[in-house]
Write a structure and sequence with these properties.
Pfam families: Baseplate_J (PF04865). With 393 residues, the protein is of the alpha+beta class. It contains 8 helices and 21 strands.
Length: 393
């Protein structure tokens, strides 16, 4: 189709702009219409090169216009433009976060713990809120933050040491595994949160709760399961209950949000209980799940060429770990999908080896075939748990 203009255009189908070659052909046609068809405009001519420079400027400007147009919608925006779009919905791109864990603090009623911290079995420190007051019940659930940023794993029952002894503070433990810290939020996840946030005023109470929870600071994953029957369902949810499985976020903020969105006649189900006050000052117990973390590893067999190096092996491990760690709660770890990051997504280094076998390990135990996480589980993979056996080369 012959172009009538090389300016970007907005039509019912969206925005369009000419490519470099389309702009160059258009300029050559216009040049010959002025100076004659015998004008020589190939790449080895000065006039042809000058038209090429102009065509490059035109195509670059057109591409910039297309990019600018795409920033108007959170569905097509990327990077900083996406961050600005979702700000309209009151959402901010999540910055790198620290791992958190819900700790049950037990001790004498009225005890005030100032700048306290607990220590897990791997000597990682978990910092308590600046001030924690043990209530009359003798125990309280608080969210502690790892002293170092990144993914710090503390399995259930592993945070049992009082780091800063305080009179009246008797014990500490964690019922659920820690919620792992995350890197800067990726565009795909931010778009998902934006879509869910607009569901806050929706008809469904479940959608409303999920959307509101995703808008809380630090929340990285969230799944909701509802049992509206009169029998315990296949997931083990009691009759007429709602189960929220959530990673990240402050436990009290989560509980308060859930309480404010809860519908009548529906109970909570989870492994973490938090007491919050309603609008009349009455204590209400809210339950939700902190996902159990399953340690995932892989045993990989491969045939290599002489160009294969240990650095390539490290890249394979990192690519697989990154893939597993972005999986959602209750996802399936499928072997056929693991081959993609194991193949470095088709990069040049993938030409130096061929994958012959992959075996999944879960908590150190080999699994036959794929592995499906339970509804309240999340996968975590460290590169040290990936073993690559190389033959050949």
């Amino acid at each position: 189709m012959t172009l009538t203009t090389i300016a970007p255009q907005i039509t019912d189908s969206g925005v369009s702009a000419p490519t470099y070659f389309e702009a160059l052909d258009y300029l050559k046609d216009q040049y010959k219409a002025i100076y004659g068809d015998d004008a020589y405009l190939e790449n080895d001519s000065q006039d042809g090169q000058w038209l090429g420079v102009i065509a490059r400027v035109v195509s670059d400007c057109g591409a910039a216009c297309v990019d600018a147009y795409s920033t108007f919608s959170p569905k097509t925006a990327t990077g900083d433009a996406l961050s600005r779009n979702v700000a309209i919905n009151g959402i901010k791109r999540a910055l790198p976060t620290y791992s958190t864990v819900d700790l049950t603090i037990t001790g004498t009623s009225g005890t005030v713990i100032t700048n306290g911290y607990a220590v897990d079995k791997n000597n990682n420190q978990w910092i308590l809120p600046a001030t924690v007051t043990i209530p009359s019940s003798g125990s309280i659930v608080v969210t502690a933050t790892a002293s170092q940023a990144g993914a710090i794993l503390a399995m259930a029952g592993s945070v049992t040491t009082i780091g800063k002894p305080t009179r009246g503070w008797q014990s500490v433990t964690n019922v659920a595994s820690s919620t792992l810290g995350t890197a800067v939020e990726q565009d795909a996840h931010l778009k998902q949160r934006q879509a869910l946030s607009v569901a806050i005023p929706s008809q469904s109470k479940t959608d409303s709760i999920k959307g509101a929870l995703f808008s809380l600071a630090g929340v990285s994953r969230c799944k909701t399961y509802e049992n509206d029957t009169k029998q315990t369902n296949s997931l083990g949810l009691p009759p007429n209950t709602l189960c929220v499985v959530i990673s990240g976020g402050d436990a009290n903020a989560i509980a308060q949000t859930m309480r404010s969105k809860k519908s009548l006649g529906c109970g909570w189900y989870g492994n973490t209980s938090v007491s919050v006050n309603d609008n009349f000052g009455e204590a209400v117990i809210v339950q939700f799940y902190r996902p159990n973390v399953r340690s995932i590893g892989f045993i990989i067999g491969a045939q290599s060429t002489v160009d294969y190096t240990s650095d390539i092996g490290d890249s394979i491990k990192q690519a697989i770990a990154n893939y597993v760690n972005q999986l959602d709660i209750g996802d399936k770890i499928a072997l056929n999908k693991i081959y993609v990051p194991a193949g470095l997504y088709g990069g040049l280094d993938s030409m130096t080896y061929d994958i012959s076998s992959i075996i999944i390990t879960v908590d150190g135990q080999q699994i036959s075939g794929d592995f499906l996480l339970s509804f309240n589980e999340v996968a975590y993979c460290e590169t040290k748990n990936i073993d690559i056996s190389i033959a050949g080369g």
